[in-house]
Amino acid sequence: MAHTRCPSDGLLARVNFPLYAVDMLTSRHILVAGGGGSSKTGVANGFEIYELYHNGTHFCAKEVLRHETGTNVVMNFALCIGGRRGYLCAGQEAHCQMYYIQPRVLSEVKEHGNEVSDEKPAPADRSHGKGNLRQRNAHSGVESVTNGHKHPISTADILRQSQQLLFDVQAADVVQTDFLKGAEPLQRVVRISGNGQLMATGGTDGHLRVWAFPQMTLVAKLAAHSKEIDDLDFSPDSKVIISISKDAQGLVWELASGHIQHKLQWKAPEGDKYLFKRCRYGTVEAQKNNYRLFTIANPLGKVGKQRGFLQHWDCASGKLRQAVAIEESLSSLAVRDDGRFVAVGTMFSGSVFMYIAFSLQRVLHIPNAHSMFVTGIQFLPITNEAGPPISSDTEAAVLSISVDNKVCIHSLPQRRIIPAWMAIAFLIVMIFAVFVLCSYIGI
Question: Under 8 Å CB-to-CB from 405, ≥6 apart: which residues?
Answer without folding.
Answer: 14, 15, 16, 17, 18, 19
